[in-house]
Write a structure and sequence with these properties.
Helix content: under 10%
Low-confidence stretches: 288-294
Number of helices: 2
Structural class: mainly beta
Distance between the termini: 22 Å
Shape: globular
Number of strands: 31
Radius of gyration: 23 Å
Strand content: over 45%
Length: 379
């Protein structure tokens, strides 16, 4: 991971698609509906459009990047009831390949690119439905289990993502209680306090091959297995990232004031890595290293220093400035408000022992690189 300073990039965080140490690939918007897929070269600070023709998408557009290709929709002649094309654009050559064409009322959204063969699309026309499209056979299959495309049960949030464990692709879901939606539903009368509400948080998993097969067979309920489940109202399950081809989660139980770290190797193999009794500490604050899956706590602080402890190793760090995130045990990130009420980002590189300060800035992690989008860098 390196710091990439992309201050001259004409895009915001929602447009960043892919990053290499020399270039940033992004969606260059012309207006609300029209855009190019473009490359920004960091060394010469120049941009190049990879697409020769302007692309159009009137709905919630979201290009995906998989194995060197950008997947997106392109709507043609919408006012005349025109077509929607599914495109794959090579990041290096800019060559565009048309994978599918639809002529449907309403709006299509590319919701998820599972791999080069299978895509999930949403169709909104009075109601919202979804289907799985097979690029190889050019057949589409309706998705009956609404959970897979964000229609949640019991006012919970469902975080789906793809992982590869032991060369097998899996879909993992971190199912978490959405307390804000729950209380909004109470206030609006959608539900009553007497209604049964599932307060659990859990980790669900299923192989991609199983999910695809069940969709093709018309299954109403996809067979996700439950790896972790906590039922207490204050209990939480936290995804901590990947380490060496394994998933790492933590499970906090409020009744015990204890956090247990787990490693997931496949859909039936889960190993406990360690546990922390929070009663043994009196932390002022804590943060997760979301790349290396390490938990840090702020053990002591004053105007002159912050003492931070790595709970995995017991190592202590003395830092002048506070930080909210630690990336790969190297980059310590702190967000603050500057003198002109503009956002600032401070990055301390512990490997190089250098502190970077950016004004009117924010940061993001894309393709494993730390990208700074800013107006200027301060000395």
């Amino acid at each position: 991971m390196e710091i990439l300073d992309a201050r001259a990039l004409p895009a915001d965080h929602s447009d960043i698609l892919h990053v290499t140490p020399s270039s940033v690939y992004f969606r260059r918007r012309l207006d609300e509906n029209q855009f190019h897929i473009s490359r920004f070269d960091l060394e010469d600070q120049e941009q190049v459009d990879l697409t020769t023709d302007v692309l159009r998408d009137h709905g919630p557009t979201r290009p995906f990047v998989k194995q060197g290709k950008v997947y997106c929709l392109n709507e043609q002649h919408r006012d005349d009831g025109g077509e929607t094309h599914l495109l794959a654009i090579d990041l290096h050559s800019g060559k565009s390949e048309q994978l599918a064409v639809w002529n449907l009322p309403g709006d299509l959204t590319l919701y998820w690119v599972l791999n080069a063969r299978y895509m999930v699309l949403l169709h909104v026309d009075q109601t919202t439905t979804a289907f799985l499209y097979d690029v190889t056979t050019q057949i589409q299959y309706p998705i009956n289990d609404e959970r897979l495309y964000g229609i949640t049960e019991n006012y919970r949030e469902l975080y789906f993502f793809l992982v590869s464990l032991n060369e097998t692709d899996y879909i993992v879901c971190n199912a978490r209680l959405d307390e804000f939606s729950f209380y909004d539903a109470l206030e609006s009368g959608v539900i009553s306090p007497e209604d049964p509400i599932d307060h659990s948080e859990s980790v669900l998993i299923a192989s991609l091959a199983t999910i695809v097969q069940e969709i093709q067979q018309g299954a109403d309920r996809l067979s996700f297995q439950t790896l972790l489940r906590l039922d207490g109202e204050g209990d939480t399950v936290q995804y901590l990232g990947e380490q060496g081809g394994h998933l790492v989660f933590s499970a906090y139980t409020e009744r015990l004031n204890e956090e247990v770290f787990y490693q997931i190797n496949n859909e039936s193999d889960i190993t406990e890595l360690g546990r922390v009794r929070w009663s043994d500490y009196e932390p002022l604050d804590f943060t997760y290293d979301d790349v290396e899956s390490t938990i840090f706590i702020v053990n002591d602080r004053s105007d002159e220093h912050h003492e931070v402890m790595n709970l995995r190793t017991g190592a202590r760090y003395l830092e002048r400035d506070p930080f909210e995130r630690v990336l790969r045990d190297r980059f310590y990130l702190h967000e603050s408000i500057g003198d002109d009420a503009e956002p600032m980002v401070t990055v301390f590189d512990s490997e190089q022992n250098v502190r970077h300060r950016f004004e009117d800035a924010y940061y993001m992690i894309v393709s494993g690189e730390l990208v700074i989008l800013s107006v200027k860098q301060l000395q």
